[in-house]
Design a protein that fits this description.
By secondary structure, the chain is α/β, with parallel strands linked by helices. It contains nine helices and 14 strands. It has a six-stranded mixed beta sheet, covered by helices on one side. The chain has a six-stranded mixed beta sheet with strand order 7-8-9-10-13-14. Bound molecules: zinc ion and fe (iii) ion.
């Protein structure tokens, strides 16, 4: 297996680095400059790029990285991606530094959004976040809910490497949805301590997300009741998810 580390970018993005010896892949290099300096500092050579979706904060650095290291660029076939050499739509198995990685279709945030599943590590871009999920810019609630359900069904030990540090910002909404869920209050304290210490809250642990992330809890009676009070027309999980997502959009 490769080693996983991160390069911070912009205000709250993580560019994940998958490293084996002196060769490494990066996931979602929205900016080339921090990647170039990290690779120079650690004597690394770029062996490939994984892109989850087309937004600039995920692919903006690809062109400059290709100038330095011509390499394979794995990216959604359905989206406009600079420098893409390997178009993917989900279901493929790809080789990343000798490790087999499965490509998942997790459309919702965008129409071709992909996630990359390595042994016990999922790189999911802007699909699942700590205590939250990506906005529905292009896909439907049904698509996004299916993507989140797919992630929730992965083995419990799977660590989730999302592309933004949003956990602390998301937790107040989770608590508003489920004020009586003690796991949310406990997580708020733990996350505050980590952020205070300058530590990331990502990767996410799947059991903790299932216990505290409202978007993975659309079949819980308390979450259904909260969504119904916000206009969900039935107890159907997709309907509940859609009401939560719309509520979240207007919540601080
Ligand atoms: Zn995005
Ligand atoms: Fe993003």
């Amino acid at each position: 297996m490769f080693q996983i580390s991160y390069i911070p970018a912009f205000k709250d993005n993580y560019i994940w680095v998958l490293q084996r010896g002196a060769r490494a892949f990066v996931v979602d290099p929205g900016d080339a400059a921090p990647v170039l300096s990290h690779f120079a500092a650690h004597g690394l050579e770029l062996a490939g790029i994984l892109v989850t979706h087309h937004h600039a904060d995920h692919q903006g650095g690809v062109a400059a990285l290709l100038e330095r290291w011509p390499c394979q660029v794995f990216a959604p076939a359905k989206e406009s991606i600079t420098g893409r050499t390997q178009p993917l739509s989900g279901g493929e198995k790809i080789d990343v530094l000798g490790v087999q990685v499965e490509v998942l279709d997790v459309a919702g945030h965008t129409c071709g959004h992909l996630a990359y599943l390595a042994p016990q590590a999922l790189f999911c871009g802007d699909t699942l976040f700590g205590a939250g999920c990506g906005r529905l810019f292009e896909g439907s609630p049904a698509q996004m809910y299916a993507a989140l359900t797919r992630i929730a069904l992965l083995p419990e030990a799977t660590k989730i490497y999302c592309a933004h540090e949003y956990t602390q910002m998301n937790l107040p909404f989770a608590q508003r949805v489920e004020p009586d869920n003690p796991a949310i209050g406990e997580r708020i304290s733990r996350v505050a301590a980590r952020r205070q210490a300058g530590l990331p809250t990502v990767p996410l642990a799947l059991p903790e997300e299932k216990a505290t992330n409202p978007f993975l809890r659309c079949s819980e009676p308390a979450v259904i009741a909260a969504a119904r009070a916000q206009g969900a027309l039935s107890d159907d999980a997709v309907e509940v998810f859609a009401a939560l997502r719309a509520w979240r959009n207007g919540f601080g």
